[in-house]
Amino acid sequence: MKLLPFICLIPLAILLSSCSSTPQSRIQKNPELYNRLPEKHKALVQQGKIDRGMKQPAVYLAMGNPDSKVTGNREGRSYERWDYSVLTPVYTSGFGGYYGYGRGYYGRGPYYGTGYYPEVYYVPTRGSSVYFRKGSVVGWENKQR
Fold first, then answer.
1. Is 132 exposed, middle or buried (0-12, 13-18, 19+ CB in 10 A)?
2. Alpha carbon distance, N-terminus to C-terminus of the chain
3. Helix (DSSP H) and strand (DSSP E) numbers for the chain
4. N or C end of the chain: which has fewer CB within 10 A?
5. Model confidence over 34-44: pLDDT tens digits?
C-alpha cells in the first residue's frame, strides 16, 4: 500500500521530464539551424551560453523559447528583449479551523480543531533577459540569487 503513491508519481515525472528542453534536444530537433552557425557559436550553444553578436536562432538553440518578448526604443534605436522566467517561492501562512466526520483522534465521530497552516506558492518572475538589435545580441541580464 505504501508503494501506491510512488507508482502514481511515475507518470507525472515522465510527463515533466518530456516537457523540459535542453540545448542538445533543441539541436537534435533543428540540425539544419545548428549547422549554419559559426563554429564559435556552436560551442557556446552546446553549453547553453550566449555571446554578443549571436543571432536569435542561436539564442533559441542555447536557451530555448522565451517566456515573453518585449519590443521598445532606447536612445532612438529599436530593440527586442527576450525574457526567461524562474519560479520564485512565496511563503504565506494562515490560521484556521477544520471540521470532519469519520475516524478522528478520539475514535469514530465528528472532529474539529484549529491550526497554523504554512504554505508555499511558486510565482514566475523574470530570471534572465537577452537584448537584441537588428536580430543580434547586444546584451543580457541574469537575476542573482
1. buried
2. 40
3. 5, 4
4. N
5. 999 999 999 99
